[in-house]
Design a protein that fits this description.
alpha/beta; Nucleotidyltransferase, domain 5
Length: 152
């Protein structure tokens, strides 16, 4: 019997296996990974390019390496839950992932993920400019952990 997961008024099949998550940005894309059974997210990589061919080439390499069952994309919303320009770009990115790689994609509310990532890095002793290299992948980790936490 297959179980289902309900997130933001949508129902998704609860898949087991590796999950890759993305914190989409116009300049960089943070990537995190985790296993659905353990439900623990880990920062993985930052794609530091604005060129789509480079971005999707690096994503293809990650998909070939990790063989995920599911992709999660952070959905940026304003504090009051309204959509804005980056919301539309993130949705388009999610659609491209689904279309190119034929994998299910779940969108997760990512409000405050970057602030939480910065706070987590501060607690780890990583401050200021040092965070720039890691902030996007730690934000992706926060997004993925949020997905795992909603699976309960």
């Amino acid at each position: 019997m297959q179980t289902h997961l309900r997130i933001q008024d949508r129902t998704y099949p609860a898949l087991e296996g590796t999950v890759l998550a993305f914190d989409f940005g116009e300049k960089r894309i943070g990537v995190a990974m985790g296993e659905s059974i353990l439900k623990i997210a880990h920062p993985l990589f930052t794609i530091d390019s604005e060129i789509n061919d480079i971005r999707f080439g690096q994503i293809l390499a990650l998909i070939q390496e990790w063989r995920p069952a599911l992709l999660v994309v952070g959905l940026p919303l304003s504090v009051d839950g309204e959509e804005h320009a980056l919301t539309k770009l993130s949705k388009r990115f999610a659609q491209r992932l689904e279309g190119r790689f034929s994998l299910p994609v779940v969108l997760i509310d990512e409000r405050f993920s970057s602030a939480e990532a910065s706070q987590n890095l501060n607690q780890s002793g990583v401050y200021g400019r040092q965070q720039k290299v890691m902030i996007d992948q730690v934000a992706a980790q926060t997004i993925l952990q949020s997905y795992f936490d909603q699976m309960h």
